[in-house]
Amino acid sequence: MRRLSLLALLLPLVAVPAQPAIAQTSAVTCPVRVDPAAFASEARLSALADKQATFGARPTGSPAHADYVDWLEEEMSAIPGIQLSALPYTIDRWDNLGTGLTVGGTAVQVAAPVPFSSSTGSGGVSAPLVHLAAGTNITAANAAGKIVVRDLPWTNVPNLLFYPPTLGYSMYDPGLTINLLGSESMEAPAAADADLKAAAAAGALGVIEISQLPHAQIKDMYAPYEGLPYGVPGAYVGADQGKQIKDALAAGQPVQAALTVNAAWTPTPTRTLLATLPGGNAQKIVVESHTDGMSPVWDNGPLTMIEMARYLSSLPVECRPRTVQFAFVTGHLYQHLTGPNVREGGAGQLAAQLDAEYDQGKVSSVVVLEHLGAKRYDAVARPNGLPGKQLVASPNLTELLLVPVSESTPLRELVKGHIEYWDVRRTAILKGLSAADLGTVPRHCSFGGEGTPYNQHLLPVISPIAAPKTLFSPQFGPEAIDLQVMRKASLAFTDVVLDLGPMAQTAVAGDVTAMRQQRASGTPGCA
Questions:
Q1: 88 bridge partner residues
Q2: What ranges make up the beta strands (E) of 163-280?
Q3: Cα separation, 284 vs 312, whole angstroms
Q4: What does the alpha-carbon distance between residue 68 and residue 72 come to, in Å, rounded to a whole number?
Q5: Strand 125-131 to strand 147-151: parallel, antiparallel, or no bridges (unpaired)?
Q6: How far is CA 512 from the centre of its chain?
Q7: Distance (Å, rounded) from C-alpha 115 to C-alpha 216?
Q8: pTM
Q9: Fewer CB in a 10 Å sphere around the end CB: N or C, the chain?
Q10: pLDDT in tens, 61-85
């Protein structure tokens, strides 16, 4: 979709009660779209990903996370015209001081503690083991006084859901690489949240979660990430260690286990970094990604944002009709950032602020960038009869890029055009990632990730996200990113931001305007 053909549809720009837009003169020539020669090369993106990897895993508020945000601030401060500010928070940071497990007196290797587990101290807890299979509720009758063993489930989402007329708006898969009758699946460590809560309520003394993946691929993985303490300790083990535990139980005799999760909570500052590039009008387009994560692919949105900001700053202000604010958000791995009653992380805090500003004409739209260019890894049987599965990279495929876009046909067409122009293959533009509910505003409550709170706060949102199976583990580094595809996606969404500049706000908002009116009249929002 060419920008010149869009202008006739999308102009004139709706005025807002802020500084007036600067009139474009005939002496200024603005780009029709991003010049790839003026944008970051694959080598530059590779260097950024390698630099990011040097920080290692970045739980919220950890020294590594703080160092990463400081580095992002240095990168952004070097870009001409950028104005920096921050939104500070204080959290109780959770730190793992050591984990251990013995089963029947034999040591069993632990891959990771469940984040925010109850601390046992260095002495651990000792109790009989009980394996409760999937579908068996954890109750006082079967778990009190015991250490519960659970198998992590795998999610399966049919591919047909990503096509029209279900959740899909359009699909770009010119190579026909997606099996319409197949499904997208990955292991779901987030299920540990319900297990640990149920175990605490039942009076259990601990939980061991067994992965189908080997220890080497899940070592130090991090999920779930609520930011609230669980009432019991929990730990993950790999497939081989899970077999070791189940073999011990298979004898039919009581098996005693000792589980240690030694952890500490420390009051710690963290912050959302804001980098604002003024445009001809103060009404802002917000480009957002998170900074706390386990791997480069989890947090490569900020790398694209650096290069997007660098490119946009090189243009005359007349070519930036709206201000662009880059938000490097904290609290993605600490969802209850401000307390137990609100689960939205830093994205939710920023979304609430933007919601309040929207009706004042200060905000146009939000573009959230997550997991760009994520390579596809398939879970295949392990060799030599070893238990479970292992993740193997596809030689030429990336994970399906899901792009929920709020209820505006011009906005969805804008994204569709740039995805196709830059050939960002295996991309589904979606209406949402949950079933429509005509009784709420918005109709689709989930956008699948960081874009969800902006959508729920009834802001115009474009929210690309992939769901790579490597997401939760720091054992996968920059090699899990397809840099060519990441660059194509970066170019496409930079073009999207360029086109959002002159786009009429009525076209940007679409049905969001009516939904905000319905909310004001009492229509319920998302629970």
A1: 271
A2: 168-172, 183-187, 206-210, 234-237, 256-277
A3: 14
A4: 6
A5: parallel
A6: 23
A7: 18
A8: 0.93
A9: C
A10: 999 999 999 999 999 999 999 999 9
